[in-house]
Amino acid sequence: MNEILRDFTLNYNLENSKVTNENGYICFYNSDENISTLFIKLQATNSEGLLSFLRVSEATNHNLTLTVKKPKKNEKVDKVGVLQTGEDDDVAIFRFDLPSKFTNQSGDCIGELLDTFTENGVNKKATSDIFQYRVKASCMKDLTEEPIQQSSVKLNTATETMTFSSIKLNTTTETATI
Q1: Cβ–Cβ under 8 Å, residues 111 and 133
Q2: The Cα angle at residue 51 between residues 49 and 82, in degrees rounded to 5
Q3: Would you say the pTM of this structure is higher than 0.90?
Q4: Sign of dihedral through CA atoms 58, 62, 68, 69?
Q5: Digitized pLDDT (tens) for each residue of the chain, 178 residues in all
Q6: CB within 8 A of 49, min separation 6: which ones?
Q7: What's the number of CA atoms in the CB half-sphere (13 Å) around residue 49?
Q8: Domains of the chain with bracketed CATH
């Protein structure tokens, strides 16, 4: 069996900064662990004037860093990609195994890539356009991290009906605030 991943492949054009997604919508869950992965392929114009993917032999001097702004507190997290080994003429792919700090807050995350490389003896940096991915809230996630708010909850008992405007559960101390 192949490795089970929730993975997405992005193409990063070094010349116009555009990042395109081969899979369409990028989505993870805030309860995901060790399963969220981004694969990045670099594009540039080749010697024949055609846009093409960089090969492993052309990408060995490239260092790719992903920076993500998280949705709730605008905290930034970084990850350095790993160039996947292969034959020199294989398409170069950078792998980003995202730890939970990239997926632990539900909402829309903003990503940006920075490629640092040397070309003709000159150190260069290329920053990408931003791209988004969504982290969906899981009902299995610890409720102390992301409380569930109910607009109204009715409890029916044999003798009366009670209505609450909101309920916040704190599972760590096993108390309920009503």
Answers
A1: yes
A2: 130
A3: no
A4: negative
A5: 677 788 999 999 999 999 999 878 899 999 988 899 999 999 999 889 999 999 999 999 999 999 999 999 899 999 999 999 878 789 999 999 999 999 999 999 999 999 999 989 999 999 999 999 999 998 876 554 544 444 444 444 444 444 444 444 444 434 444 4
A6: none
A7: 0
A8: 6-136 (2.60.40.3350), 142-178 (no CATH)
